[in-house]
Amino acid sequence: MNKLHFKVGLFTAASLLLAGIFVVYLLHARGFFEKTFHLQLAAASADGVAPGVPVVFSGIEIGRVTTLGLNDDGGIIIRAEFLERNAKWLKETSTFTLDKPFVGGAKIRVDSPDLDAPALPDNSTMLLLTSDISKEIPALVERVKAILANVEHLTRKDGEINATLANVQTVTGRMTGEYGMLEGVLGSPEKARAVTDSLDKTRALITKLDAMTAKTDQWLFAQDGMAEQTRASLAQVRLMLDDAQSSLKKADALMANAVEISADVKEGTQDIVKLRAEIDDAVRKANALVNEINKKWPFARDPEVKLP
Amino acid sequence: MNFLAASIESLGAKVVGWFTVAYGMFAFLAKAGMLLLDRTTWNRATFDVVIKQVYFTAVQILHVFLAYALVISWLIITIILSTARDFGLTEFASEMTIRVLVLELLPFLTALFIALRSGSAINTEVALMQVNNELDALAHCKVPPMQFEFLPRLIGGVISVVTLAGLAGLIALLQGYLSIYGISAAGFEPYTRTIAKIFDFQIMAGLIAKCALFGLAVTLIPVTAGLETPKKLFMVPVSVLRGMMRVFFAIVAIEVVSLALKYI
Q1: pLDDT, tens digit, 9 for 90 and up, residues A232-250
Q2: Does the predicted interface ipTM exceed a cut of 0.90?
Q3: Which domain holds residue A275?
Q4: Closest approach of chain A CAs to the CA of B162, in angstroms?
């Protein structure tokens, strides 16, 4: 075996193989194995558009303008080509905008807000919008001029801003004094001292209040405190109320009797005596009850129960 | 007046000299081309010499050359990337890398490499053969030097420069990818897009044509310079010196013309 020939053969084979792989890769990259997708854009003006102008989607180039031409009505038809794999970004809801930035070449921007929308068919025609910055510049300049005039007016000598700044300077100057911010706000160290004094007093007051609250708490809610006693009294009142209720029921029954009886007074004089005693008893009990309640609760100051 | 006439005369002599050299070169090239078209040239003996030439010009130095391409690419890529990062132009870094390295710098350096190593050797050899009357002897023995000495050298030079520049370019592409995206497949899509954008048919054809011209320049010029040598031994170094200067100017001229064609 010829060693020299073998080496040269190996070198040639390897180089050819690599070259072949690279060519296939390049053809793939340039979309040789894919179908091309065509799109026509109708525009009002082809200013700045030329063959080779990129069509970008989200900042990435997906296609290029191939030709420009006029249709029969004098409108401009721009034809662009896309690789099949890039055509999926073109939807029926997509908008096409011609961007002409200050720096860099013109480009056609594709915006597809809804990626679920149906895909654009091949050879379809879309409208090309124009966003020309250079046309907006005069309006922008006018507005900037107005703003600058305002700023100039505000910042003139002895203007509002200057006065405000002087005030701010005075205030911040005071703020560097012994009482800091307080002095800044109040104007002098004396006033600031008064405020700190009253703050000290308030603090003392709050300490006292704290102690009082603790005592009140003890008095109210401890074992045998006010709260406990009140609960016991209320139980008593319930008992008395029950008692009064039963007495009044009895009285009610007696009164019913009394109506019957009054028809025949003569026969029922003994009953009336009995009735009278019952009623007196009930009224006394009710009176006692009201007095008792009055002692414990600030009810109306009229303990008399009128007899019927 | 005398001085002016003398300087005009010397200028004329120089121009005539350039034209003679250029004419000699192109006449030689035309003769080689005619021979290439001749069916009798394509025999086993010529093929063997071509293989030998490819071996000596490309295969023998392959490892050295690849290491050299690796280092140069790594350096240039690192410089471009860090500069691009500093100026916030990272998105152009990959395109810049490919354009500078694969299209311009690596073919140029490959041509210089082959010129220094093989071109100078060819020039010396041909000059010595000329001085020692070996060429006449060969022709006398029915071994035409054009077919067995010069044409294989030209073919070998072209094949070597095209292949070596291509290999160096592939290494630079791979290295550029690794430097920008690291060992991950994430950057494959954008890198492919950049490559697709740069390498259209015109650029590829121009690149191959440029490399072939480089290969021709680094072999054809030394051969003709050697053939021009007067039959005196001390003229051999002068011949090599002249030949190498011409090779250098030719390489620069090819590079400049290719750049001008590409960007103007």
Answers
A1: 888 888 888 888 888 888 8
A2: no
A3: 235-296
A4: 10
